[in-house]
């Protein structure tokens, strides 16, 4: 693995992900409010561990292939509390910024601090003059706020079919959303109903070896089994996601 820089801020640091971080990362991924905005199936501890191990391998291999990658965000005690860095772009040519934090670390400015350090490194230590971001904007208002503060501007959109061409992964994400609706996610029932429905609607436009109507039926069955979930909100989210199966594409250039 190529040399990975260490970046240190006033409260946190960015350092390489290592195999020993798998448990900490799996714990972060186990929170639905984190995983709802990425593509992973975190419906069991085993699946969280598998996703964490794969992501660490993916993040570290990027440094060798592209000269940039994703760091672990660590607190003052050296504990992993999230991730931040860059991956090969899903759209366009510039590195794509990625980030995620343990929910207990939300609201403290850590994401802004980590992303600012990462962008300063990218623009100050590499030839790259731009960075991009692709987000589920309709269900990730925090990400939209953060990207705005970081100087990103919406450039366009990316079709779900292009963002998630892996049918097996797409099916896993769909199963995760159904699990959330059935009671796996108890964090915010009001948001859950629409958000899970929305992502399932987007996923219904992909080839998942089942007709869209079947996926909606399963979503409503899961909703009816969970008294905290609104079937009407699930249905509303599903048709809005199906009607607009695209993610938001943002870009920022070096100042």
Sum this structure up briefly:
The chain has 255 residues and is of the alpha+beta class.
What does this 3D model show about the protein?
The strands form 2 sheets. The chain has a 5-stranded antiparallel β-sheet with strand order 1-2-3-4-5, sandwiched between helices. It has a 3-stranded antiparallel β-sheet with strand order 6-8-7. The protein folds into 2 domains: 162 residues, Gcn5-related N-acetyltransferase (GNAT) (Aminopeptidase, 3-Layer(aba) Sandwich); 77 residues, no CATH class. It is built from 10 helices and 8 strands. It has 255 residues and is α+β, with helices and mostly antiparallel strands.
Helix content: 40-55%
Annotation, overall tally of beta strands: 8
Question: Largest beta sheet, briefly?
Answer: 5 strands, antiparallel
Strand content: 15-25%
CATH topology of the largest domain: Aminopeptidase
Query: Nearest-angstrom radius of gyration?
Result: 18 Å
The backbone outline, from C-alpha atoms, is globular
Counting structural domains, the number is 2
Q: Structural class from helices and strands?
A: alpha+beta
The appropriate CATH architecture of the largest domain is 3-Layer(aba) Sandwich
Instruction: Give the class-level CATH name of the largest domain.
Output: Alpha Beta
Point out poorly predicted stretches.
Answer: none
Which superfamily, in CATH terms, is the homologous superfamily of the largest domain? Gcn5-related N-acetyltransferase (GNAT)
SSE string, helices as H and strands as E = EEHHHEEEHEHEHHHHHE
Number of helices: 10
Mean pLDDT: 93
Subunit organisation of the chains: single chain
- The span between the termini is 31 Å
């Amino acid at each position: 693995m190529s040399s990975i820089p260490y970046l240190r801020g006033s409260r946190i640091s960015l350092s390489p992900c290592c195999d020993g971080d798998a448990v900490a990362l799996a714990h972060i991924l186990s929170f639905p409010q984190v995983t709802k905005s990425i593509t992973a199936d975190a419906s069991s501890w085993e699946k969280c561990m598998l996703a964490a191990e794969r992501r660490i391998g993916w993040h570290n291999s990027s440094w060798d292939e592209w000269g940039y990658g994703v760091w672990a965000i660590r607190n003052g005690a050296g504990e992993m509390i999230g991730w931040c860095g860059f991956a090969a772009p899903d759209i366009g040519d510039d590195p794509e910024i990625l980030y995620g934090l343990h929910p207990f670390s939300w609201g403290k400015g850590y994401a802004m601090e980590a992303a600012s350090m990462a962008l300063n490194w990218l623009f100050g230590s590499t030839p790259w003059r731009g960075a991009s971001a692709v987000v589920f904007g309709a269900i990730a208002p925090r990400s939209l706020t953060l990207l705005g503060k970081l100087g990103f501007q919406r450039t366009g959109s990316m079709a779900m079919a292009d963002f998630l061409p892996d049918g097996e992964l797409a099916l896993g994400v769909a199963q995760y959303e159904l699990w959330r609706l059935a009671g796996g996610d108890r964090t915010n029932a009001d948001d859950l109903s629409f958000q899970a429905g929305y992502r399932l609607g987007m996923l219904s436009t992909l080839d998942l070896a089942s007709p869209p109507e079947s996926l909606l039926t399963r979503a409503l069955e899961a909703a009816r089994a969970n008294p905290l979930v609104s079937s009407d909100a699930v249905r509303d989210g599903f048709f809005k996601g199906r009607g607009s199966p695209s993610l938001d594409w943002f870009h920022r250039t070096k100042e």
